[in-house]
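Lab meeting tomorrow. Please check the following:
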Amino acid sequence: MRRTTTTATAAAILLPLLVGTAASPALAADSGDVAVTNTETVQARLSATGVFQGARVYEQLALTGHGTATIENPVSTDGLRNLDGFGGYTVVDGKLVSTLAVDGERRERSLSTYDKDLPLTVEITYTFDGKAVQPGTVVGKSGTLGVHFKVTNVTGKTQDVTYDDGTGTMATASAETVIPMIGQLVTVLPSTFTDVQSDEAGIAGDGRGGTRMQFQMTLFPPIGSATAEFGYTAKVSHAVIPKATLTSMPVSPLEYPSFKGGAASYQAGAQKGVDLTSGAMQIDDSVLKLHDGAAQLLAGLLQLRDGAETLSDGLNDEAAPGAAELSAGLNGKAAPGAARLAAGLNNQLAPGAQQLAAGLTKDAAPGAAALALGAGQLDTGLAQARAKAPELLAGLTQVSGGLANVDAGLALLYDKVGAAGADTAPLRGGLAVLRSKIGTPASPGPLLGGLQLLQSQTTTSATSAATIAGVAGAKATALADEVDNLDDLAALLSDPAQQAELAAIADRIADTSPASIATDAGGLATSLQGSATLAAQLQCGLTGEPSFCPRDKDGNVTPGLLQGLVGIDAGVATLVATVQGSIASSDPKAATLRAGVKQLQAGTGSLTTGGNTLVQGLGDLGAGATKLNAGADSLSKGLATAATGSAALAAGLQDAATGSSTLSAGIGDAAVGSQQLAVGLQSAADGSTQLSDGLTTAADGAPKLVDGTQQLSDEGTSQVVVSGQGTAEDFGVKYAVLSAGAERAQTEGMAYGAPDGAAGSTAYSIEIAGVDGNGASSVGRLILAVVLFAAGIGLATLARRRFV
């Protein structure tokens, strides 16, 4: 009986201290200033299979300060009694109301029946030699015993939690939350249990040949689970079912030392997901703007290409061949003929007037008439050509202006791309800062270094706590036996006052029991080791380091956040460099868009030069044709006059000689102009071909830029947005669940609640019964007490004298 009381008392003192030892808030006292702390310890009893058999709750008020205060403490009123005296209580609406005077420190304790459901359920199952059995059937047998515990936090409920979805919008998710609970289960196996095996327990000797087993539980997600399952197997002889003790308490995962680092990691992970999503969305918007600009450039290049092809076809297929034929006719036929005519007129006048008159009448006059007609037609045709030449020059001017606009547009596009690259500078700077904060395993930054230090320190602390648990456990059993002896001795005393004094001595000894110290130190060791494991997992997520990360079936390790940041930084730099590189240089020899436009401008310049030459040639040819027309007309008239009368022969011949000289000069000028025209048109044709080829090359290359920017958005930046949102949601929901659990621990963590303005905490001590088949154990202890009565009465008398 006393061992149970001892465990409950130790739990009431020690477990709340693990939650925090901050100064208690002061109540609004009737006079003076009084600070109050309320601790509740629920002591429950379960059968060997976990069936609830009853529970009671110990209430303790610790008051410090000076003055008086009226306190209303919520309690269970069923079986309520005073542990500090025989006085009664005033209870109003389920609250124990008392006015207390305090001068320094004061304690008030009460005990009542626990009338609520426990926050934890325990299921224990047994196997013997591999077969399921009831616990009582194995007593006294020999074989292999298996014991399996299943502890469940049954405070779960579904509630809505909010988190940032990565885009700055607060999203809501439905999640299962529990009041966060931690605990440990301790059982001591007798020396008849050998070859003890367990994958979950901390195992140590109890100092008397037995085996002490301790199981730690973190009963809340996402750091732990609402259900913990564990157990052990052992080879037994004269088997019994050992009893076990489960202690537990609510904690805040945001404040409890073993968990607040993990909770902060979930919070930081959610924020990193938000930052990643925001940066990726900015990059994706810039890429889509670049895609729209490239599509507009492609449309303009296609229009220029079609126009250049039409111009090239006209110059190469019609204008240039026609000019070549004209030049050949003038130089090969007309000019030599005119020269021979002039020579004949000037050099063959001597043969005589008859020959001249006959020649003029039969040959020269009709020839002169035909020449006059041809000269008139040539003059008309050249006039029409001169009229069309300005339209050609105007068209070339428009093409040149269009190409200048295209070059200006490309320069503007280059600047916009550069500006877009500059817009990514904050993102790349942020990525660099984040990478420096993470660091590498060889050269860790503050974040990775902090995790490494956390892992090292928690591992060391876990080892130290386990050592403390072992030492305290070894001392606990011997002290508990002495307390039992005092209990038995007190039960034999007939004087109630002596019984009370001896019980008080036993209570003081029991209050110093190291059993709960060992239990809580073991729990602390397991929690610290769990934190070290979490720190290693966080290092894996940050760096993808193989020594911390699990491998898949192919032996590969999933890259960490650090590798993802490096990839994003490299992708942004490559995008800006590639786009600007395809536009930048205007050197005609370079393979860029501006270089192609420069080639087109050069071809257009050549066309313009050839067009000007053409206009000049047409002007010269027109002047010669005018002279030829005038000379042919004069020649025709002169020959007609010569034919009609020999009297006018001399004058007519003179006119003919003069006209033939003029004709020869005019045809010579026309021949030179036609040759210039042919050269100019050929240059124009070559330039138009270069213009068409350059625009075709530009138009063929531009779709790659359009497709590339779209592919970058679809397969790159948009996927980064999706990944960032997934990270923000995963970590955000988990941290929201931890926050909701912390709030529930604050508002629902106590069994009955604390007085207004007071600090409070609740601990649970659950005794799980064993089965040993010895129904006469209490009788044997009574006989032992009678034997020790004589020595005990002397000890009681001595104790009474010391405390009177």
